[in-house]
C-alpha cells in the first residue's frame, strides 16, 4: 500500500499512524486497538491526506478492524492475521485496479 499523501509520508497523518504502530503491537490483546487507532487517524485527516484511494483505504481499514478482533479473540494467530491482511489488501487493490481500467476503457460521453 502506498504511503500517506500528506507531505509524502512525513506529514501529520503519517506521524499519527506511526504512533499507532509503536503504541499497539500486532499481538493478541492489542491488534484491534492498533487498527482502530489507524482507522481513526485516516478518518481524521481524510481524503486530502490519503489521496485518490481514500474510500478504498477506509474499506481496508474496516477489514483490518475485523482481523484485529479475530486476533484478539484467538480465532486467528498474529501470523494468520498478517496473512489475512495481506490477502485483503491485495484483493482490494486488484479489484480497484480492474474497476479503474474498465472505467478508463469506456467511451467518453459529451
Describe this structure in words.
The chain is mainly α and 110 residues long. It has one domain (6-105). The protein has 4 helices and no strands. It has helices at residues 12-23, 31-50, 54-73, 78-105. α1 (12-23) packs antiparallel against α2 (31-50) and α3 (54-73) packs antiparallel against α4 (78-105). The mean pLDDT is 85.
Can you lay out the helices and strands and say which pair or pack?
Blueprint: H1 12-23, H2 31-50, H3 54-73, H4 78-105
Short description:
The protein has one domain.
Q: What profile does the largest beta sheet have?
A: none
Fraction of residues in helix: over 70%
Oligomer: single chain
- Write down the domain tally: 1
Number of DSSP strand runs: 0
Question: Which residues form runs of ≥5 with pLDDT under 50?
Answer: none
Radius of gyration: 16 Å
Please provide the ordered H/E string of secondary-structure elements. HHHH
Task: Please count the helical segments.
Answer: 4
Q: Strand percentage, roughly?
A: under 5%
Q: Give the rounded overall mean pLDDT.
A: 85
What's the shape?
flat
Structural category: mainly alpha
Query: What is the straight-line distance between the termini?
Result: 35 Å
